[in-house]
Structures are given as C-alpha cells and as structure tokens.
Design a protein that fits this description.
With about 350 residues, this protein is α+β, with helices and mostly antiparallel strands. About 35% of the residues lie in helices and about 25% in strands. It folds into three domains: about 150 residues, Winged helix-like DNA-binding domain superfamily/Winged helix DNA-binding domain (Arc Repressor Mutant, subunit A); about 80 residues, SH3 type barrels; about 80 residues. The chain has twelve helices and twelve strands. Strand 5 and strand 6 form a beta hairpin. Helix 3 packs across helix 4.
Length: about 350
C-alpha cells in the first residue's frame, strides 16, 4: 500500500497552506531530505529519529511540512505493519536528479554569478530556470531559506558580461583546436599587442578568468587574464594540443596560476599571531608545517616560481620571515626597503 504526493500540481500546494516559522532547523531537514532521497527501500520514523538524534514527534512534524510543501513523499506499509518513508523517485525532476541534489544545485547558483554574461553563465542560468520551473511556489519559498546558509563574497570579482562573445570564441577555439589571434593589453605594455596563441584551457582563480595558451613564438605555455583580451579572431589553422597536457599537473609547482621552470625550496617562519591561520589551510600540496616552541611555525614549500608567493609572504607583514633560500630572503628585504622609502620620502598629510 502506498500514498504518493504529486508536487507538480497546484492543488497540493494551496490545500492546507501553513506559515513556516523563522526558526526552521534547515540543516536537520536538509539531512533528512538526503536520507529520504537515497534510501531505496525507505526508512522508518524511528530510524530517522535515531539517525538525526531527535524525537519521533520532530520527525513527524518535518514529514508533515515536507508533504505540505509538495515534496513527493511516498509512504509504504510492509509486513507486520512496518511503515517506511522515502522520496518517490518516479517523480524525478526533468533534469534527472534526486531532490537533495536539486536543492544543492539551487543553493550553488550564487557561486556562478561572477560568470554572468558568458556562455557558461547563460548555460547555468538555463539549467537553474528549468530547475526553478520544476518546483512550485511553496517549494521555492522553502528552498529560499537555504540561501541564508551560504554567502559567496565576490569583492574584487571581474565583470564578464561584456566578454560573452569573446569567451565563446575562445571556447570554440579550444574545442576545435584552432590557432587564435588575440589582442592583449598587458600591465607592462602601453599599447595592446596582437599575438598568435593555441588556446588550451580556462583557469578560474580568485574571482577572475584566465586563459592558458601555447605561444608558438616563445615556445611555451603562457597565462593571459581574460578581461585584458580586447579582441579574438579564430583562424582556420588547426593545432594539436599535447596529449599529456593537464592544467592541474602543469601548475603543480605554482603558488597560484603562473607557472615557471625553477625549483625553489623555501622556508618561511610565521610568528605566533598568524601561525594558526597559516597552518589550518593547505596553501600548496608541497607545504610542510613544523611547529616551534615559541608558537611560531616553519613552513616549507617547493615551488617552480616565486612571484605570487612573494606577494603572499608580504601580505603577512612583520609576521612572516623568509629563512631560505638566501636569494629570496634578499629579494623580500629589497622590496620592504623600497616600501619604506616611499613612506620616508613624503610625510603623511594631517587630516
């Protein structure tokens, strides 16, 4: 015996409408939705209560709310009157995903907002529109509560809304492996320069999009910031991307997205005020942290280039001291001396 609740009919939503309290424990209900989605043979109220660490009355209230919201709850009574619950997968969304997966996609929408205007952003928005159309008004209202759990901070993000066509052309060049002429304005040059490149892949790093492309004139792969590319002209000349090209492996020795041919073994002492902050993150796969008695740590890295690493070390101010190699330590010292000259050379204006 089973009872199916169809979430796609308006009648199931308007009947028995209730107001959701502001303190709905969405994390518990999110986990409960996952359980109901993945348990092929259903789960009893007692089992759900035990897994969630709450009383059976709480689970029954959650199930009642899910039913009121239009989720396709299926209740089945088996042998000896054993009653189980699950989300009816025969009522799958048009995108063929479980309901907990649909909720996750709905929540992840904000993370693609920086790509608005690009073909990636437009394609994602198309998926989200279809997803939203699959939910009724009450369900969407409920899902809106999950947005408060995650906030994507996008300060410093690049606006690509006017670069959509350019990014489309670069994507086509990658897919069809066609040589491309790009007009690029670097930070060092006073005028944009047109060059031939073989586009390999996009890199998304710190809210900005980059192009990894082989430069045949220099015989190496170079990285170009997409918002500095002014024009793109895809030619009919085809190139062969190396079969062993892998952006992840290629950037293995990088501290960001810029690669190099060097081999640097670096040791940096981070003083106690920032030691925990450094230690609790995996800044690079080569990182080794060695705690010291005074609360500081010695951090060891092996990198192929130092430009991005230099900026990172300087961001810690006096709390980061380069110990090795001596050449890099001297380079940091010269940078700090130049900074001091700027402050010493001109007195601060009094407000």
């Amino acid at each position: 015996m089973s009872e199916r609740i169809d979430p796609w009919t308006h009648d199931n939503i308007t009947r028995g409408r209730t107001t959701m309290p502001d303190d709905v424990p969405v994390l518990r209900q999110w986990k409960l939705l996952r359980i109901l989605s993945v348990r092929k043979y259903g789960v009893t109220v007692r089992e759900m209560a035990q897994e969630m660490g709450v009383g059976e009355k709480t689970i029954r209230r959650d199930l009642a709310q899910f039913r009121d919201l239009g989720f396709p709850l299926q209740e089945e009574v088996g042998e000896f009157g054993r009653k189980t619950w699950k989300l009816d997968q025969s009522r799958q969304l048009p995108l063929i995903c479980r309901f907990d997966e649909a909720v996750a996609l709905h929540m992840a929408r904000q993370f693609l907002e920086p790509l608005a205007g690009t073909h990636i952003g437009e394609a994602a928005n198309s998926v989200f529109r279809k997803l939203s159309a699959s939910f009724n008004e009450r369900t969407l209202e409920y899902l809106g509560r999950f947005h408060g759990l995650f906030h994507h901070v996008t300060r410093g993000a690049v606006d690509y809304s006017k670069k959509g066509s350019l990014i489309d052309d670069l994507s086509m060049a990658m897919e069809e492996q066609r040589a491309t002429h790009i007009t690029y304005q670097s930070t060092q040059a006073t005028e944009p320069v047109t060059r031939d490149v073989y586009p390999y892949s996009f890199l998304y790093y710190r809210h900005a999009l980059y192009l990894d492309a082989h430069d045949p004139n220099h015989g190496q792969v170079r990285t170009y910031k997409v918002d500095r590319i002014e024009e793109v002209d895809v030619s009919n000349v085809h190139f062969q991307k190396p079969a062993d090209y892998d952006a992840t492996k290629y950037l293995k020795g990088s501290f960001g997205i810029f690669h190099g041919d060097g081999d640097f073994n670096i040791v940096v002492r981070f003083l106690q005020p920032v030691a925990r902050y450094v230690r609790e993150r995996l800044w690079h796969e080569s990182a080794i942290y060695e705690p010291q008695r005074d609360g500081s740590i010695h951090a060891r890295f092996r990198l192929s280039t130092l430009e991005e690493f230099k900026t990172w070390v300087l961001s810690f101010g006096a709390n980061a001291i380069v110990l090795e190699p001596a050449s890099f330590r001297d380079r940091i010292a010269r940078e700090l001396e130049a900074m001091l000259e700027h402050y010493r050379g001109q007195p601060a204006k009094r407000s």
